[in-house]
Write a structure and sequence with these properties.
The chain has eight helices and five strands. It is α/β, with parallel strands linked by helices. The protein has one domain: Rossmann fold. The chain has a five-stranded parallel β-sheet with strand order 2-3-1-4-5. α3 packs antiparallel against α4 and α4 packs across α7. The termini are close together.
């Protein structure tokens, strides 16, 4: 079984992925942030590095999905291959930070990759307000995220909501995380697990 967690920057995807992997005793596939050679450059000069960054993420996530299906294991994945193509790349293009030529090239590559992979059995979307995202981003203190603007986060949030509204690739669970503290409060994590259990009953 393949579970994937989607959500904006700072929504809590990685933390929840790790907590759920521990609870269900399954493998976690995390987003490649630490070893990503483009992130620092991208946040300092978005227009120059947007295409490089998006292709790197696309390659990384495509590789993950192929490995997940090949492994035959129960796996929970931090962020999906769909988010870059439906949210991040179109947003960069709309903001004038990715050229038409690069965006068309990227979209063509994504469409080819998407045609060869299966969607997750369950997609969990972490819905969050902008103030909550900003608070979480500041709390974790990653240097390269210091330059992220509220306008950028707002644009991403709008695209996330539009994408989720039309998502029909498989089971979908939406969790509003604004008033949940699933790290410090066991009852909040328990509430999320109950919702997931009702969705995946019979899938394990």
């Amino acid at each position: 079984m393949h579970i994937a967690i989607a959500g904006n920057i700072g929504a809590g995807k990685t933390t929840l992925t790790q907590l759920l992997a521990k609870h269900y005793k399954i493998e976690a596939q995390l987003e490649d942030v630490v070893d990503n050679p483009y992130l620092d450059d991208f946040y300092n000069e978005m227009e120059r590095w947007s295409f490089n960054l998006q292709v790197y993420f696309l390659n990384s996530r495509f590789r993950q999905v192929v490995q997940i299906r090949k492994s035959g294991k129960n796996i929970i994945q931090d962020r999906t291959i769909y988010e870059d193509a439906n949210i991040f790349a179109p947003n960069l293009h709309a903001m004038g930070l990715m050229t038409n030529r690069d965006f068309d090239n990227y979209s063509s590559l994504f469409n080819l990759m998407e045609s060869t992979v299966q969607a997750p059995d369950l997609l969990i979307y972490l819905r969050s307000s902008i103030p909550n995202l900003v608070n979480q981003i500041h709390k974790r203190g990653r240097d390269y995220e210091n330059s992220i603007s509220i306008d950028y986060l707002s644009r991403l949030n709008e695209r996330y909501e539009a994408w989720i509204h039309g998502y029909e690739k498989g089971r979908l669970l939406i969790i509003d995380v604004d008033h949940l503290d699933f790290v410090e409060k066991a009852e909040d994590l328990g509430e999320i697990i109950e919702k997931i259990d009702s969705e995946i009953n019979g899938l394990f």
